[in-house]
Design a protein that fits this description.
The structure holds two protein chains of two kinds. By secondary structure, chain A is mostly beta strands. Chain A has one helix and eight strands, in the order αββββββββ. Chain A has one domain. Chain A is globular. Chain A starts with 10 loop residues before the first helix and ends with a strand. A nine-stranded mixed beta sheet of chain B has the order 3-2-4-7-1-8-11-10-9, with helices on both faces. The chains are: A mainly beta, B alpha/beta.
Chain lengths: 130, 392
């Protein structure tokens, strides 16, 4: 994997904010109300360049999920692990499910958090049952 | 406007050739295509070469001149990369060059070498077609991404793992007599259901293979075919329609996770370009990297209504005896998926099918219209081509 020594602006800022109790992760909203994940200079939906950072809700619902048994080398010790797509309102995003995978279901409530993966220790976006 | 015709096709056997270099695989397919077309290789104007993961698996960049050298060409060359849609995109570039009158003879090829690295490494290389930050760092793999799509599809429309298994069984059956196919063996629904899980609900037999191989086409302008100095060039199949569309790269960016809008748009372009509506398509090769992908492709292409694509194989409609045979080559599932070669291979196989040169040609009606659907990522890239017999 890419070295984590050099941060990736946008992604790492998002995880930084999510890691601190009194901070809120920011998403990008355009003047027409389209939400997207940072970094952005242009809205990917409508091309608007009038963008602002907005606080992203920390909770949402599971839209779909799968348990991955055949990982890449970076997730070898994590497997099997469950990946979900969550709808948090302004947008959807992909996260690792941090809970008993037998209990995950479409429509269940989750909250976002940051954890380190088992294999590499790199940070990633996780979702926990609420 | 000149029309692009297919004058020759060339394939290597698809399979596990871990020690064969990419340049050797490509040179074999290119030589077959050049011989099949009966063109002088020195007459080729340009090489459009597709490769996705050679910088990982062979630590080889700058492959366009390398492959021109391997094929003995003395022309300019371009490498095209759009993940698993690289091959289809190379075809489109050549078609457009011919239509613009810039090129009379083009070699279009795709090659991928995947089995010289571990399955885990190949999975990692493939994952580079997804969003490196917002997907891959959360452990997303491509089987995982299509599993997410499959579960969303099941949630909306119903459907079962048995329905998906019927797609795999069909495509293996189609590959049985295809001498170029990676897997020339029949499987049963139980084989699919009992196979190890890769990313639920997708098991090992819901997934295309990790395949080494190359595929090439010689595309020529109709002016070149009809020139008095080229009496030995025969090109009865024309690429009458081409379409290309892209989408946001991350699956989670789609409004509806079981829809692939890029395929809807690319196919609409191709149908319009060819003046051939979806109802006139007789056979199709679709990008069945996973079983669910075939079901979704049939719907996105307008060949089936939403929620119906998953039942097409079960209902015997897309089998070789059905009304719309799909993946008569065996598809990516059984013929194999050397990723950047697949989009070119689809057109090689359709050309063989349409010209009575394929073991499954008996299932193709006379004067059939054929469609190829080639996708990259979770269909963040899509190429659609329509092939038809030239009006005599």
């Amino acid at each position: 994997m890419t070295s984590q020594n050099t941060p990736d602006d946008g992604y790492d800022d998002f995880l930084d904010a999510l890691s601190v109790d009194d901070e809120t992760a920011q998403y990008v909203e355009c003047s027409n109300g389209h939400g997207s994940l940072p970094p952005r200079r242009v809205c990917p939906v409508c091309g608007s360049t009038s963008l602002s950072d907005k606080p992203l809700p920390n909770t949402g619902t599971v839209v779909t999920y799968t348990t991955i048994h055949a990982p890449t080398p970076d997730f070898d010790a994590d497997a099997p692990y469950t990946v979900i797509i969550a709808d948090v309102g302004p947008l959807k995003l992909t996260a690792i499910y941090d809970g008993d995978r037998q209990d995950v279901s479409i429509g269940m409530d989750i909250s976002l958090t940051v954890k380190n993966t088992e294999t590499t220790g790199d940070r990633a976006l996780y979702a926990q049952p609420v | 406007m000149p029309q692009a015709r297919i004058a020759g096709v060339g394939l290597t056997e698809f399979g596990e050739h871990p020690s064969r270099t990419g340049r050797d695989l490509f040179a074999e397919a290119a030589t077959h295509a050049i011989d099949d077309a009966n063109v002088d290789r020195r007459r080729i104007d340009h090489l459009y070469f597709a490769n996705f993961m050679g910088a990982d698996t062979e630590r080889q960049g700058h492959q366009a001149p390398l492959m021109a050298e391997a094929a003995g060409l003395n022309c300019s060359a371009t490498r095209v990369e759009s993940a698993c849609a690289s091959g289809g995109l190379a075809v489109r570039h050549a078609v457009q060059a011919i239509r613009r009158g810039r090129t009379d003879v083009a070699l279009v090829g795709g090659m991928e070498r995947m089995n010289n690295v571990s399955t885990a490494s190949a999975t990692e290389s493939l994952s580079k077609a997804a969003d490196a930050f917002w997907e891959v760092r959360q452990g997303m793999t491509f089987p995982g991404a299509y599993a997410l799509m499959a579960r969303a599809y099941f949630d909306e429309h119903g459907g079962t793992r048995e329905d998906l298994a019927e797609i795999a069984v069909k495509n293996h059956s189609n590959a049985l007599n295809n001498e170029y196919a990676h897997y020339q063996q029949e499987i049963t629904v139980d084989d699919v259901l009992d196979a190890p899980m890769i990313a639920d609900p997708l098991g090992l037999y819901d997934s295309s293979a990790i395949t080494d191989g190359a595929a090439c086409l010689i595309l020529v302008s109709d002016d070149y075919v009809n020139h008095p100095n080229t009496p030995d060039i025969h090109a009865p199949i024309a690429i009458t329609g081409t379409g290309h569309s892209v989408d946001q790269i991350a699956l989670h960016s789609r409004d509806t996770l079981w829809k692939t809008p890029a395929a809807v748009s690319a196919s609409a372009q191709a149908y319009n370009d060819a003046n051939t509506p979806p109802g006139d398509i007789d056979i199709a090769e679709v990008h069945d990297c996973f079983t669910i992908a075939e079901a979704i492709a049939l719907e996105s292409l307008g060949l089936y209504d939403h929620g119906e694509g998953i039942h097409a194989a079960t209902n015997d409609e897309t089998t070789k005896h059905g009304t719309l045979p799909v993946n008569l080559s065996g598809g990516l599932k059984a013929k194999g998926h050397p990723v950047a070669a697949s989009g070119v291979s689809q057109l090689c196989e359709l050309t063989r099918l349409l010209t009575d040169r394929h073991p499954n040609s008996e299932y193709v009606p006379d004067d059939a219209s054929a469609l190829a659907h080639n996708a990259g990522g979770t269909v963040a890239s899509c190429l659609v081509h329509i092939l038809e017999h030239v009006d005599q």
